Amino acid sequence: MTLIAVIVGPIVAVVITLWVDGRRRDREQKIIVLRLLLATRHIPADPSFLTAINLIPVEFNARRDVMQAYNEFIEATRQRADGVNDDVIQLNSSTKLTRLVFEVARSLRFKLRETDIQTSAYASDGWRIRDNLAQDSQQAMRDIANILWLQTRLLAGETWEQIQANKKGAPTAEIDSEAAKTEEK
Q1: Which pLDDT tens digit goes with each residue over 33-58?
Q2: Angstrom distance (rounded) from CA 86 to CA 82
Q3: Domain range spanning residue 177?
Q4: Which of 96, 94, 84, 105 lies closest to 34 in space, CA to CA?
Q5: H runs (alpha helix) in 41-124
């Protein structure tokens, strides 16, 4: 019996240690996702937010409640703003995100209320202004590229109909017809 205890005892201790370490690492990875979600939940264009959302199926695959909330959120975000139901679409996406963050926190045994998740985040106005300015600048660069491409075509002698028929090399697939008509004049 002593010989068996001397051999089996250390093996069992190592197995238990590895099991505990594995569970700890698994929890730490899940907490990283939760932290990213909580830190960026009101800044959906943030790369950390997108990373956290995309890691949920990896880290929480075994949690049915989290995966259901994840699938509902993804389905809600598939709806694109149409100019008619924008407020309803935004509210639905926000509600589904709140539920997703709540389910992730609950699965990790954090005691957060859904209302706190939805209302207690902080994002400074300066940061929002900077983010909107960066987005506007990127849109302006795309518009400039489109106009330059269009001007080059018009200066080369192409007509508006030829440009529309052959959009190869255009910076974007859509060319603003009003801008083109203005340039053509």
Answers
A1: 999 999 888 877 788 999 999 999 99
A2: 6
A3: 124-185
A4: 105
A5: 47-59, 64-78, 86-107, 114-119
